[in-house]
Amino acid sequence: MAIQRKRRTKKNKNPTSDISMLSVERISEKYDFHPNTVRSWVNKDGLPHVRHGRGGKVFVKQDDVERYIKMWYEEG
Q1: In degrees, to the nearest 5, what angle opens at C-alpha 54 toward C-alphas 52 and 59?
Q2: Domains of the chain and any CATH numbers
């Protein structure tokens, strides 16, 4: 007779899970910039980001992207 074990579900206790995170591809589509431009912001200009998954896919908070674009690309 096989012993059945109860599966544990992971509870997301990360308080930042409500924050909208965008991939490089999504940022380039949404804001009409080339993906290499967005990667340059991350690698050279220090745009705050996190890397996740295999290959370290880059994700950036939507608020940070909007702040960065406003600071460098909008006249004001």
Answers
A1: 25
A2: 19-73 (1.10.1660.10)
Whole-structure pTM value = 0.73
pLDDT, one tens digit per residue, over 5-46 is 666 655 555 545 667 999 999 999 999 999 999 999 999 999
Q: Spell out the residues 6+ positions from residue 60 whose beta carbon is closer than 8 angstroms to its own.
A: 21, 22, 24, 27, 38, 42, 47, 48, 49, 50
User: What contacts 24+ positions apart, CB below 8 Å, involve 41-45?
Assistant: 41/68
Taking residue 47's Cβ as centre, other Cβ atoms within 10 Å add up to 19
Torsional sign, CA 28, 15, 68, 52: negative
